[in-house]
Amino acid sequence: MQSQDVAQRPAPSSPAGPAVDVEQAEAALVEHYPRLARIAYLVLPPGLGRSRRVMTAHALTQRALPRGRTPAPVIPAQSTGRDGDPGYAVVRLQVVRTALEAGRPLGRRAWPKRSQLPPLLPQVWGLRVFPRSGGADELALDQRLSGLSGPARAAYVLRGLERLPDGDVRAVLAAAGVADPAAALDEADEVPARYPLLDSPEFDPCSLQARPTDLMRRRRHGKAALAAGAALLVCGALLGLPGEGWGPDGAAAPPYAGNPAAQAALDPGRLTRVPPGAWRTSARTDFSVWPARGALTGDTALLRRALAVWARPGETVHVSATPGTPSGGPSGPPQLLYAGVVDNARVVILYDGLRIARYAEPRDGTLGAALDFARVDGAGRAEAGAVVLGRADGNVRYLTAPWVRAAHERDLRRPGSGAMDLTLTDGVTAPLASPALRGGACTSWNVLQLADGTGTRLLTDLGELVPARLTAGRPGSAGDASGAAALRTWAPYACSLSAVRGTGVRSVNAWRFARQPLPDASGSAAWVCTRAETWRGEGARALAQFHTPGGTYGAVAAKAADVPACGPRDPHVLAGVMWKSEAGSWYLLAAGSRGTVSVAASGGVSGSARGRLLAVRAAQGARAELKGTLEDGRAISGLR
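Given the sequence above, the corresponding structure tokens read:
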């Protein structure tokens, strides 16, 4: 334990503020409970494991109420939102104090304090709960914070999350019993000031995921708890049963019995390894013909850890899966696609015919290991072009398919800027900027461009293991968005891809379904429908977007989920938007796709037109219902 750890002596006194009664402290605790629990979670030592940290953080926060009227420390509550609230200052100080105590080692001669023991309440039986996994930046910050002492972590959190100046941080730490607050602040300076990441779901003990505990161990313990006489009676009864068994599982072995296929799935020697040239002669061009690549394909210990974590991830493992992707263990030996070092991590990529699984651990240990899943069933040559190896410092690296001949980086927002070469080393790309990691204004959208001998494809990182394929054209006949016309179609709408990050997207198509002359004769506007298809089938999203001449971005006019519009099953769409001319007049503009023979508006705006375009003068803020008629007489409603 470093010299600036929590002192064993009583906390030094600090100037007293107004007295706070229990009711005032309780009101502050209830109002700011999520923030206080987050502070406790961040200050607690990561070595406790994510599940116990969550439970301990809640226990410490719930026990932070004073027993009677308590003088408040003369320390600001927080720079925004809690100024002058002495109740918040009191309970925050108690949370910091007990979280620091919980990180102290147990003494041999002194009784442990309550905060140093596993919490009695709250408790969750039969489940492990832990915060939702964040990205690579949150994982890196968590690893850096785990290397700090408790007081230094507290100093970092008070600076970054509470936005306290260093003088107030020293005052809080001193009041919490830290022997040397200045040394704690100096140690906290060793971690980069990535303070916005502290608000990430990664560090939120109030927004949780749940996984079962070790089911095998629970069953063994339950079996061991039975009395020997009762066990003999049960065994005798089972032996005496006639016919086909006693339960609905018939001749199946007990659930806790060893399964040869499950055992084989944990053996690195049984991993499927495809020969390097198999894809050249195979009728299939998907992940099943990818060879094993990387410098660590012979590291049996690493492969064994990856398989074991896949089968039963521990409490400290960050587990994530795209929507609709099961996260259970493999049913048999999976296929090895990659094992090697990527940036500062050892990475293993596995494939079981349904999912891609990515295991990553730090180069200097296994604390902070991560396990990610993505569903890829039914992938063909176009979708099996690349897999994300890792993300760091705002960049992403891909492992490309063996049939990829060249890789480039292209800004989708600038179709005329050309593509930049990316170096390929044993199928691994040089790092390129990832739009999935960028925050703030969207000024660019970099995508991966691959050439494989049969064509050129564009893939974009949407924060998942498998990048999404970009296409352009009428549904049912769309092609890869690699030609000049397709790139121009996509340019104004590239930033709208952020709306489908992390939703299990397989492909996104951009279809320009209409052009409409503007009423003030300032040119023609483009109507484009972008539709994101998912790997799981459900959850498809359609956006109707409107782009005026000279505009930088398209404007979303309508959106819908789980509808057939803009898709191969129903290549029709009708959408409208309220538009203001340069002269200040407002219009309802509506457009339908090819095959629309009439459009009508009702409600706040009334009007109709033959054909697929409608322009009607309207009042600002008016709302209208759109109806259209197709060539076959079928009615179509506006996308919504």
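Confidence is low (pLDDT under 50) at residues 1-15, 238-253. Try to locate this feature in the token string yourself.
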